[in-house]
Write a structure and sequence with these properties.
The protein is α/β, with parallel strands linked by helices and about 325 residues long. It contains eleven helices and 14 strands. The protein has a ten-stranded mixed beta sheet, sandwiched between helices. The chain has a four-stranded mixed beta sheet with strand order 3-2-6-7. Strand 9, helix 5 and strand 10 form a beta-alpha-beta unit. The longest helix has 16 residues. The radius of gyration is 19 Å and the shape is globular. The relative contact order is 0.13. The structure holds adenosine-5'-triphosphate (ATP) and magnesium ion. Magnesium ion binds next to loops.
């Protein structure tokens, strides 16, 4: 198996709790919180571990929340390279209202990264030898330059590593400008980048083809929530249909999907098999409540039931 690193510029500690009825102005009594490590790349590393793969997570961390984040990851045996920061790692709050079964996710902006700190993150990536996959995922904290992922794209090219990108907004534009190996948008991220107000599956195929023709990505896997995903490369246009499951929580679906794709590729599976496995991982997450990631047994079962349709037939 080839080696995988993940980079999470804006990690967090997720504090999960429940209430019985969301109301303004009142004291809301919460259940005992459960703490979990979070942030795009960190979740990808945690999901890779659940899939019996291995990766190294690179992330900045500071303050008592940073120390806590490191401990939570050590407990899960995630290998990591930590860049110490002056400012505190953020804590996000996830609240499930048990009366409505709705989840509220309060996400903080993240600490201010100094130039030395974000440069150290980049140097950490540069310093690792023999990397085949670099997964860059999540938002940017204040202080990080908007072209942070674009700089990682350049490092990946120099190292002959394959960059897998899952981010949004302006940071995404700067990364795609440099060109990436695989981009995993959802439909709204693809429509934001392509300039469509509304995007259908048909338009998504065309939009992805255009981006690939422009050299911004070699592979685009657009996730469609319960409708599965579409894979587009220069030569492939394929839709993956996922089995219907009883959905509990979709938190972490995108990150687990990325983990499934990268683990499969690193084990030498072909692209269609890898995306199919990734979709099974995303769907497996939705069978669990809260922020729990995918279980290997669910993934294996779903993978056997996965369907795919060549776009030519699908259309
Ligand atoms: N309701 C659902 N039912 C079944 N599978 C789902 C559902 N939602 C998500 N998935 C699975 O997870 C994958 C990724 O989901 P989605 O398209 O919601 O990604 P995302 O918007 O990037 O998610 P995230 O919020 O984690 O970033 C889908 O391709 C699918 O396999
Ligand atoms: Mg996502």
């Amino acid at each position: 198996m080839s080696s995988i690193i993940t980079i999470t510029p804006n990690p967090c500690v997720d504090k999960n709790t429940t209430i019985k009825g969301l109301q303004p102005d009142k004291k809301l009594r919460c259940s005992k919180p459960v703490f979990e490590p979070g942030g795009g790349g960190i979740n990808v590393s945690r999901a890779i571990q659940k899939l019996q793969g291995s990766s190294t997570a690179i992330y900045p961390a500071g303050g008592h929340t940073g120390v806590f984040l490191n401990k939570l990851l050590e407990k899960e045996n995630i290998k990591s390279i930590v860049i110490n920061t002056k400012d505190y790692t953020r804590e996000n709050i996830m609240v499930v209202d048990e009366l409505t079964n709705k989840q509220y996710r309060f996400c903080m902006p993240g600490p201010l990264l100094t130039e030395d700190e974000w440069q150290d993150c980049l140097h950490a990536i540069e310093s690792i030898n023999d990397v085949e996959y670099i997964v860059a995922s999540g938002s940017l904290p204040p202080g990080a330059p908007v072209d942070f992922f674009g700089r990682i794209a350049i490092i990946a090219k120099n190292k002959k590593a394959k960059l897998v990108l899952d981010t949004s907004g302006e940071a995404l534009k700067y990364a795609l400008r440099e060109g990436v190996y695989l981009w995993k948008p959802n439909l709204s991220e693809l429509s934001f980048y392509s300039g469509f107000n509304e995007i259908t599956t048909d338009i998504a195929f065309e939009a992805a083809k255009k981006i690939i023709a422009g050299g911004m990505a070699e592979i685009i896997v657009t996730s469609l929530g319960a409708a599965g995903a579409i894979l587009v490369t220069k030569n492939i246009a394929e839709r993956f249909v996922t089995p219907v499951v009883q959905r509990k929580s979709t938190v972490g679906a995108g990150d687990s999907m990325v983990a499934g794709i990268v683990v499969s590729l690193s084990k030498g599976k072909n692209l269609s098999e890898a995306v199919s496995y990734g979709v099974a991982c995303g769907t497996a997450v939705t069978m669990n409540p809260g922020t729990e990631l995918c279980k290997l047994a669910d993934v294996e079962k779903l993978y056997e039931q996965m369907g795919s349709i060549n776009y030519g037939d699908y259309k």
